[in-house]
């Protein structure tokens, strides 16, 4: 996970980053407010894979005596549970209207699927067909990965002047920025266009490494490159 | 390793499940093909359903799937079975499709229309009654009827329906010698002679929208006479028929008076058609929860939806339930979706979808969408 | 030991020694006493005078006797101790009673000087043996239970009206239970022997006071302040409803089909449409009047009887899967269609 040390334009193979994201979309819940459960209560392990891993490592016995919080409604062992999708839904959500947010994201997925299947049927040769990614979830993963910035600018005041100093970014924040930018790009739309359609287009663009959001990321990188003379302010 | 092998095996199995049948003519479909999909030809589909008849979400699917397929299901086969053993000299028999929302009443009706089309029936098909009575777009054309006192005309809807009728029966109208029995005088200069072909009447309705409702009325009485005289056999299909019996429509007259369904000329005409005082025909109706407002959707049974008035009007009718998918149908549908790239993922997903959708066809389709 | 010492000493100093010897009782103490004798030669100046505590005499009355409760015999006749209703008195009750609210961890106060116990009404005069004895005493004034009323059914038959009141006492300063005045009357509707019309009218009059499952009419009155008045009122209500239901008013003739409490197939549109269908099938063009429809004999129509039953059950029992399926089956039989395709 040496994203930070590597430099700007690099490619990652598909499955590698996927594991990274899975690792980083945290399944632990951190609560802003106090809950009714004391701190020593463990987060539940609700995925069957994770449970199987525990059984394999024979760590399950350790957990047997530990008190565990109940899982939240979205933490299911369903086959289509996906932490990143869940994250995106939470980002889309406003005023706690999760059902609405979820339906919007799902509609966006449906739109992606329809567009891609149409392309698939239009494609002439088998090779072209094979190239087309039909799974909306992996398109989302690609899109989010392509939008993740590798550096960030932080304002640092030196001698009365605020410099935009480039620096490394944590994995978590880059994921946050990526989703945030995608949603900002989506919400910057005509009133007549609906969210799911626009979101589908943005995701497809980003998955293709084109579009507004990827440009924004590259702009940030360019800015960082330009400001690298200030880099020493980070520790001076 | 083992689990992967197993997955490959089960995927191979699910692909091996047959879900298509080459039997595209509904006459020859039998109960061995239950749960299988058959493909409608593009031009047939265009002829029958270009002006409505298939639900909107289904139309979207046909576009994505690049084909129109219908599943052969028990209610349709049951209906075909009944129709085959019907004595056409007796008064028409009325069938009422009922079932939960999204179980496929409209698609069963579409299947039956295809059957009637293949069998050479004259098709009188109303795609969705609520379109007339309950849907109020910004410019809903309404006028007081010239010929019948106190009734309301919906000329645009009527003309649209006449176009639908024309496109569904274009072959029959072109070729056959369906003649009008009496003279219809529309105005001082316009009239339709007796002995003119039926298509002339339809054309007149489309051309002179003002008279569309009266044309429909005339058309329906002519169809009844023609059927009685054994010149044609008629298949009547009306979706959302219970709308006719709901106490109120959403229409308002220009004087802000609420319109009742039986104050609309179209209602009168089509209720006249669904009486059993003629023969050589089949009437297929559907009682749908979606055709009435939310507060009256407590039950999906026909007596409740048709209300007392409608029940007494139709009695005796044959209720035909369109139910949820059986196991076999579900499996076949899932493999069809997999074939059409609509569903992917591990095979366990089907078990879960079966549970969450409760085998309801529409819900299943909806839940597959984001996967 | 001390005795011997006492003997040895001369008479002259006995008095001063006597005290000491009286106090001592062991040899070791003797030694210590000797020491003390030598030290006594100098008096110590006691600057801060420590006064010996003089124990105050407690005035104790000798005439207070032990509590009466403690002196009671185990096998006494309790009825004599507590013959009638009376405020609680701790000395009369030989029970370790405790009552009262206290902070957590403490025992509630005992019975003595306990106002809590005195506030509440007690039933110490109504112990089972006392009640039994009193019943025995008044038995001579009672009449015998009728022999024929030997079972619940017999009682129900001869006394169909059941009056329910409650006789609880209240555990508050007032013993009167406010529920005592409420009177409930229950009667089986079948015992009223009403005819069809009267029964219908009676049911409409009593409304939701009738329970279909148990066939019971329950009338409750609580508007009057005394039980007697409520009882009279309940009786009046039942009588009034009964007689009113037997009356036939002029306007009752206007009852239409919608007001019917159950679906009568013969009088409904369903029969009419069936007959019309049948006539059309036979190509008979007969115009029948409504009465003729009602009187039309359906036995000549094949399968019509079971169809009639199916429609009636659909209407009367409500619509559910089984009634609708039954209806479908009968209609198919009537119209000569094949059975439902079973897959």
Describe the fold and architecture.
The complex is a heterotrimer of chains A (236), B (371) and C (343). Chain A is mainly α. Helix content of chain A is 52%, strand content 7%. Chain A has a domain at 82-234: Ribosomal Protein S7 (Orthogonal Bundle). The two termini of chain A are 27 Å apart. In chain A, 20% of the residues are buried. Chain B has helices spanning 2-16, 42-49, 56-65, 74-84, 105-118, 130-133, 155-168, 170-175, 198-207, 212-228, 265-273, 302-314, 327-339, 348-357, 361-368, and strands at residues 37-40, 68-71, 93-98, 122-126, 143-144, 152-153, 184-185, 191-192, 234-238, 281-286, 318-321. In chain B, helix 4 packs parallel to helix 5 (105-118), helix 7 (155-168) packs antiparallel against helix 9 and helix 9 (198-207) runs antiparallel to helix 10 (212-228). The longest helix of chain B has 17 residues, at 212-228. Helix content of chain C is 41%, strand content 5%. Chain C has helices at 2-8, 11-23, 27-39, 68-71, 78-81, 115-119, 128-138, 152-158, 196-206, 227-246, 269-281, 290-295, 304-316, 321-335, and strands at residues 162-164, 183-188, 210-211, 216-221. In chain C, strand 3 and strand 4 (216-221) form a beta hairpin. In chain C, helix 1 (2-8) runs antiparallel to helix 2 (11-23) and helix 9 (196-206) runs antiparallel to helix 10. Mean pLDDT of chain C is 83; it is low at 1-29. The B-C interface holds B 31, 34, 74, 77-78, 81-82, 85-87, 90-91, 93, 98, 276-277, 299, 301-304, 312, 315-321, 326 and C 268-270, 273-274, 277, 280-281, 307, 311, 314-315, 319-320, 324-325, 327-328, 331-332, 334-338, 340-341, 343.
List keywords for this structure.
heterotrimer; B: 371 residues; 15 helices; 11 strands; globular; C: Double Stranded RNA Binding Domain; 4 domains; 4-stranded antiparallel beta sheet
**CATH H-level homologous superfamily name of one domain in chain A:** Ribosomal protein S7/S5
Number of helical runs of chain B?
15
Poorly predicted parts of chain B: 9-15
Terminal CA distance of chain A:
27 Å
Question: Within the CATH hierarchy, at the fold level, what is the topology of one domain in chain A?
Answer: Ribosomal Protein S7
- In total, how many beta strands of chain A? 2
The span between the termini of chain B is: 25 Å
Cross-sheet strand order for the largest sheet of chain B: 4-9-10-3-11
Q: How many beta-strand segments of chain B?
A: 11
Question: What level of helicity do the residues of chain B show?
Answer: 40-55%
Average pLDDT of chain B, rounded to a whole number, is 88
Share of helical residues of chain A: 40-55%
Major beta-sheet overview of chain B:
5 strands, parallel
Strand order of the largest sheet of chain A: 1-2
Percent strand of chain A equals 5-15%
- Please provide the ordered H/E string of secondary-structure elements of chain A: HHHHHHHEEHHH
Largest sheet of chain A: 2 strands, antiparallel
Pfam families (chain C): MRP-S28
GO cellular component, one term (chain C): mitochondrial small ribosomal subunit
GO biological process, one term (chain C): mitochondrial translation
Protein name (chain C): Small ribosomal subunit protein mS35 mitochondrial conserved domain-containing protein
């Amino acid at each position: 996970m040496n994203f930070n040390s590597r430099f700007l334009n690099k490619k990652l193979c598909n499955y590698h980053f996927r594991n990274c994201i899975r690792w980083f979309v945290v399944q632990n819940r951190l609560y802003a407010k106090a809950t009714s459960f004391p701190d020593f209560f463990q987060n539940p392990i609700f995925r069957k894979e994770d449970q199987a891993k525990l059984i394999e490592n024979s760590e399950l016995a350790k957990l047997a005596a530990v008190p565990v919080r109940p899982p939240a409604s979205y933490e299911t062992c369903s086959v289509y549970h996906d932490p990143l999708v869940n994250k995106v839904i939470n980002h889309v959500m406003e005023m706690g209207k999760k059902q609405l947010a979820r339906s919007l994201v799902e509609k966006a997925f449906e739109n992606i699927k329809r567009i891609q299947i149409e392309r698939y049927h239009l494609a002439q040769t088998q090779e072209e067909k094979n190239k087309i990614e039909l799974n909306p979830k992996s398109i989302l993963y690609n899109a989010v990965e392509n939008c993740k910035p590798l550096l960030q600018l932080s304002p640092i005041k030196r001698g009365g002047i605020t410099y935009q100093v480039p620096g490394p970014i944590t994995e978590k924040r880059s994921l946050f920025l990526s989703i945030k930018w995608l949603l900002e790009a989506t919400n910057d739309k005509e009133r007549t266009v609906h969210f799911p359609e626009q979101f589908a287009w943005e995701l497809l663009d980003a998955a293709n490494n084109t579009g507004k959001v990827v440009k924004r990321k590259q702009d940030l990188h360019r800015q960082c490159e330009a400001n690298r003379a200030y880099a020493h302010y980070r520790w001076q | 390793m083992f689990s992967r092998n197993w997955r490959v095996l089960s995927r191979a199995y699910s692909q091996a499940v047959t879900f298509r049948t080459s039997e595209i003519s509904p006459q020859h479909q039998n109960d061995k093909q239950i749960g299988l999909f058959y493909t409608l030809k593009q031009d047939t589909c265009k002829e029958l359903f270009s002006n409505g008849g298939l639900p909107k979400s289904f139309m979207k699917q046909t576009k994505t799937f690049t084909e129109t397929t219908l599943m052969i299901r028990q209610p349709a086969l049951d209906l075909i079975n009944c129709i085959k053993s019907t004595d056409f000299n007796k008064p028409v028999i009325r069938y009422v499709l009922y079932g939960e929302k999204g179980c496929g009443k409209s698609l069963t009706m579409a299947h039956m229309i295809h059957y009637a089309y293949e069998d050479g029936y004259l098709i009188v098909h109303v795609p969705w009654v609520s379109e007339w009575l309950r849907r109020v777009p910004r410019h809903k054309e309404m006028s007081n009827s010239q010929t019948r006192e106190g009734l309301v005309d919906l000329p645009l809807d009527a003309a649209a329906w006449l176009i639908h009728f024309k496109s569904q029966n274009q072959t029959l109208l072109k070729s056959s010698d369906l003649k009008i029995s009496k003279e219809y005088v529309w105005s001082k200069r316009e009239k339709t002679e007796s002995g003119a072909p039926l298509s002339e009447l339809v054309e007149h309705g489309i051309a002179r929208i003002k008279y569309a409702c009266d044309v429909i009325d005339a058309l329906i009485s002519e169809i009844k006479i023609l059927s009685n005289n054994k010149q044609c056999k008629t298949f009547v299909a009306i979706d959302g028929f219970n709308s006719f019996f709901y106490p109120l429509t959403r229409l308002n007259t220009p004087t802000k008076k609420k319109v009742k369904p039986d104050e609309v000329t179209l209602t009168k005409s089509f209720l006249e058609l669904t009486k059993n005082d003629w023969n050589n025909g089949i009437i297929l109706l559907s009682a749908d929860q979606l055709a009435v407002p939310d507060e009256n959707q407590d039950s999906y049974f026909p007596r409740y939806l048709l209300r007392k008035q409608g029940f007494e009007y139709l009695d005796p009718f044959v209720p035909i339930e369109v139910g949820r998918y059986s196991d076999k149908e579900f499996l076949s549908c899932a493999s069809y979706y997999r074939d059409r790239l609509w569903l992917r993922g591990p095979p366990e997903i089907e078990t879960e979808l079966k549970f969450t959708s409760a085998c309801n066809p529409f819900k299943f389709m909806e839940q597959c969408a984001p996967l | 030991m001390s005795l011997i010492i006492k003997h040895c000493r001369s008479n002259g100093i006995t008095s001063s020694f006597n005290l000491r010897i009286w106090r001592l009782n062991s040899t070791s103490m003797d030694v210590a006493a000797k020491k003390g004798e030598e030290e006594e030669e100098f008096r110590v100046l006691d600057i801060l005078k420590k006064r010996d505590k003089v124990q105050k005499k407690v005035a104790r009355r000798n005439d207070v006797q032990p509590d009466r409760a403690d002196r009671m015999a185990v096998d006494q006749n309790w009825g004599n101790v507590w013959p009638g209703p009376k405020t609680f008195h701790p000395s009369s009750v030989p029970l370790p009673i405790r009552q009262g609210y206290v902070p957590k961890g403490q025992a509630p106060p005992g019975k003595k000087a306990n106002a809590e116990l005195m506030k509440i009404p007690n039933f110490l005069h109504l112990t089972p043996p006392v009640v039994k004895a009193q019943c025995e005493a008044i038995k001579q004034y009672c009449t015998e239970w009728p022999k024929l009323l030997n079972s619940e059914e017999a009682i129900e038959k001869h006394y169909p009206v059941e009056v329910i009141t409650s006789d609880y006492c209240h555990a508050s300063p007032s013993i009167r239970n406010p529920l005592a005045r409420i009177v409930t009357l229950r009667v089986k509707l079948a015992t009223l022997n009403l005819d069809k019309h009267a029964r219908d009218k009676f049911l409409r009059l009593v409304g939701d006071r009738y329970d279909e499952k148990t066939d019971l009419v329950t009338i409750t009155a609580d508007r009057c302040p005394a039980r007697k008045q409520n009882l009279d009122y309940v009786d009046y209500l039942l009588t009034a409803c009964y007689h009113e239901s037997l009356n036939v008013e002029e306007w009752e003739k206007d009852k239409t089909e919608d007001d019917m409490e159950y679906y009568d197939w013969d009088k409904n549109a369903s029969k009419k449409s069936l007959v019309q269908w049948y006539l059309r099938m036979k190509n008979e063009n007969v115009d029948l009047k409504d009465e003729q429809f009602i009187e039309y004999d359906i036995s000549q129509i094949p399968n019509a009887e079971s169809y009639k039953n199916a429609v009636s059950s659909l209407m009367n029992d409500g619509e559910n899967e089984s009634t609708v399926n039954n209806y479908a089956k009968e209609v198919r039989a009537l119209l000569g269609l094949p059975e439902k395709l079973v897959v």
